[in-house]
Write a structure and sequence with these properties.
CATH topology of the largest domain: Transferase(Phosphotransferase), domain 1
Helix content: 40-55%
Structural class: alpha+beta
Number of domains: 2
Strand order of the largest sheet: 1-5-6-4-3-2
Radius of gyration: 20 Å
Number of helices: 8
Largest sheet: 6 strands, antiparallel
CATH architecture of the largest domain: Orthogonal Bundle
Length: about 260
């Protein structure tokens, strides 16, 4: 067993452990639980969110014990780094790893549960969402600040940024699903543009995002930013479509 708690929650250690240990029999399921399962628990005067990661295959069981940090541990450590850098994410509370003779058995990441109005996904799916242009432009500024701080969020995709309205025309952004990140002294132009590739297939949104990014990033023109951002996006979409077609064929052959 390996357990670590955020020092500011040290007085609640027994309650956190109790919730983790009763995960299968208590708590309220949040989301569909297809891959990883998330449950909500009452925690003093707030709600917490406990993510149980999918039990790894035999190779990863061994890897996560001896060679790599588990997704739960990475999520906790990366959340602490983000907060140190002044980047929004739900407050990390703890992580828990359970080992058996082979390797990692199961693992959990515990964080504050944030209730927000929307995610980036709504901007893609609802073009006339209220304040759409303002939110999108503020999201781009938030992403630029990530890049300036050397944070390459590898899962920068539609469902992984929570967006909260804090005043008229003002929004805060919070990253979730944190286990895949790179940290750099300085991010290259290509790394920055590639980081937008998963967000939207819509050219009109890429045009707005490249326009806004060009206000802060002065090493390239708006046209160069748009071209690179759109090239990264179309390449990702093509690869994604190829994988989808391949999965469909494999399913057909299996049946």
């Amino acid at each position: 067993m390996n357990f670590k708690i955020n020092p500011i929650f040290e007085n609640s250690t027994s309650l956190v452990l109790e919730n983790i240990k009763s995960f299968n029999t208590s708590g309220t399921l949040f989301g569909n639980g297809d891959r990883n399962k998330i449950k909500l628990f009452d925690f003093n005067d707030k709600k917490i969110n406990i993510k149980s990661f999918k039990i790894p295959n035999i190779i990863n069981k061994i890897a996560y014990r001896y060679f790599r940090k588990s997704k739960a541990k990475r999520s906790f450590e990366f959340a602490m780094i983000l907060l140190e850098k002044g980047i929004g994410t739900p407050t990390p509370i703890a992580f828990f790893e359970n080992f058996n003779l082979i390797g990692l058995k199961d693992s959990y990441y515990v964080s504050e549960h944030l209730v927000t109005e929307l995610t980036y996904r709504e901007l893609v799916e609802i073009p006339d969402y209220p304040d759409h242009d303002t939110i999108l432009r503020q999201f781009v500024k938030f992403t630029f600040e990530l890049h300036e701080k050397g944070v390459e969020f590898l899962d920068h995709s539609p469902g992984n940024t929570l967006i909260k309205k804090i005043a008229d025309n003002t929004y805060d952004f919070f990253l979730v699903d944190l286990n895949r990140m790179n940290f750099h002294e300085k991010m290259s132009f290509e790394q920055r543009m590639n980081n937008f590739r998963r967000l939207t297939p819509k050219k009109e949104m890429i045009a707005v995002m490249s326009n806004e990014y060009s206000k802060f990033y002065k090493d390239k023109t708006e046209t160069e930013i748009f071209e690179q951002m759109w090239a990264a996006t179309t390449h990702f979409q093509e690869e994604f479509a190829k994988k989808k077609r391949l999965k469909k064929k494999l399913k057909f052959w299996k049946s």
